[in-house]
């Protein structure tokens, strides 16, 4: 079946049009119903220190659609259209978190505490609730502008906060900056891992800015819930060497 799918394209579009079916409308309706995921930026930590920043494009039936895309130089340029501080407490083997919160407000029916602030599970070094910064960004992938999710692991949160503080002191909205994400190798107490550093490289270009508001509205579902994939990447783990 996969080989057959790789031979379609323009012919398929023509066939659907002859049948009175609008392919773009069909895809939009399916997306609204199934709330599909979007590509994600991932970090692969390596014991040799050659850490990797790449895009997980998700699975496809097309042979030529690579599921992973390396980012040259472990560098990604994008504009940030949404940012959230998220937390999640998981039980082993469960598909949904026991408790979770967005911007310090629990979003489950029976939270451990009425607020993430002051919760025993969110105490650094003592609790089991893992924090992250969840970003929704717009970037160019092979010449096309795509919305991508990027969850910064706990060790990288300090870099994001520093970037936000600099941005605010510059009196420029986050969305207006061309934000650059890179990897920085860290070695400490017998462990090696990579942290995401954040900087700005001028003002975002007009094309990206014109799409920012539309993307926020169309991908609002991405910011409303916390899913297993938000906390399933190996980038949270430091590796012994």
Number of strands: 11
The structure class reads alpha+beta
- For the record, the count of structural domains works out to 2
Shape: globular
- Oligomerization: single chain
Description of the molecule:
The structure is a single chain. With 241 residues, the chain is of the alpha+beta class. The chain folds into two domains: 1-34, no CATH class; 38-85 and 131-240, no CATH class. The chain has five helices and eleven strands; from the N terminus they run H-H-H-E-E-E-E-E-E-E-E-H-E-E-H-E. It has helices spanning 2-5, 10-18, 23-34, 157-170, 206-218; strands at 40-44, 52-56, 68-70, 75-89, 99-102, 105-106, 130-141, 144-152, 177-188, 191-203, 239-240. Strands 1, 2, 3, 4, 5, 6, 7, 8, 9, 10 and 11 form an eleven-stranded mixed sheet that branches. A hairpin with a 2-residue loop joins strand 9 and strand 10 (191-203). The radius of gyration is 20 Å and the shape is globular.
Please describe the structure with a list of short key phrases separated by commas or semicolons:
alpha+beta, eleven-stranded mixed beta sheet, 34% strand, 241 residues, 5 helices, disordered C terminus, globular
Topology, please?
Layout: H1 2-5, H2 10-18, H3 23-34, E1 40-44, E2 52-56, E3 68-70, E4 75-89, E5 99-102, E6 105-106, E7 130-141, E8 144-152, H4 157-170, E9 177-188, E10 191-203, H5 206-218, E11 239-240
Parallel strand pairs: 1-8
Antiparallel strand pairs: 1-2, 2-3, 4-5, 4-7, 4-9, 5-6, 7-8, 9-10, 10-11
